[in-house]
């Protein structure tokens, strides 16, 4: 395995019980995500074309679901970000609801305002940002149905 494949494998092992708990409890999870607004992003792999499921914190605003490509402060964007750039049509699970969405990246002031809202709710995202010079992308997932 190469570097990114190892990272993906570790993430998949970490995410699997969170995904299972989310689905078993109508979107509620405990542990590190207890009390967080959490959704499951089902995206199509940019390279593989396979479905990937990723638990993400989100903010809901005006019917859109905003997600943040922090990757816990890593110097590279998370795989799901590249998946959405290549294949913006995706599906999310929010609570017990499943929605088809289209991803669009927020830029400039729009992005900055939403990221400030996120760090106000979850200060650890500001700590993640301080770890890297990379600016975390913010994506709006807009329901299409």
Q: What can you tell me about this protein's structure?
A:
The protein contains four helices and six strands, in the order αβββαββααβ. Strand 1 and strand 2 form a beta hairpin. 25% of the residues are buried. It has one domain (3-143): Roll (Pnp Oxidase, Chain A). With 145 residues, it is of the alpha+beta class. The protein has helices spanning 3-24, 79-86, 108-121, 124-130, and strands at 38-44, 51-61, 64-68, 89-94, 97-106, 138-143.
CATH class: Mainly Beta
Average predicted local confidence, pLDDT: 91
β-sheet strand percentage: 25-35%
What general form does the structure show?
globular
Structural class: alpha+beta
* CATH T-level topology: Pnp Oxidase, Chain A
What is the count of distinct domains? 1
Unreliable parts: 1-6
> Architecture, according to CATH?
Roll
Biggest beta sheet attributes: 6 strands, antiparallel, barrel
Radius of gyration: 14 Å
List how many beta strands DSSP finds.
Answer: 6
Ends apart, CA distance between termini = 39 Å
N-to-C SSE series?
Answer: HEEEHEEHHE
Number of helices: 4
Q: How helix-rich are the residues, as a percent range?
A: 25-40%
Major β-sheet strand ordering: 1-2-3-6-5-4
CATH superfamily: Electron Transport, Fmn-binding Protein, Chain A
């Amino acid at each position: 395995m190469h570097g990114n494949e190892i990272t993906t494998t570790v993430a998949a092992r970490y995410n699997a019980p969170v995904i299972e708990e989310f689905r078993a409890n109508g979107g509620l999870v405990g542990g590190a995500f207890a009390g967080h607004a959490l959704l499951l992003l089902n995206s199509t792999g940019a390279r593989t074309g396979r479905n990937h499921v990723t638990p993400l914190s989100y903010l809901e605003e005006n019917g859109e679901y905003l997600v943040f490509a922090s990757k816990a402060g890593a110097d590279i964007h998370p795989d799901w970000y590249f998946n959405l750039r290549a294949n913006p049509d995706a599906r999310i699970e929010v609570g017990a609801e499943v929605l088809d969405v289209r991803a669009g990246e927020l830029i400039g002031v729009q992005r900055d305002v939403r990221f400030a809202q996120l760090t106000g709710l979850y200060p650890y995202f500001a700590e993640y940002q301080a770890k890297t010079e990379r600016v975390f992308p913010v994506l709006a997932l807009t329901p299409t149905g």
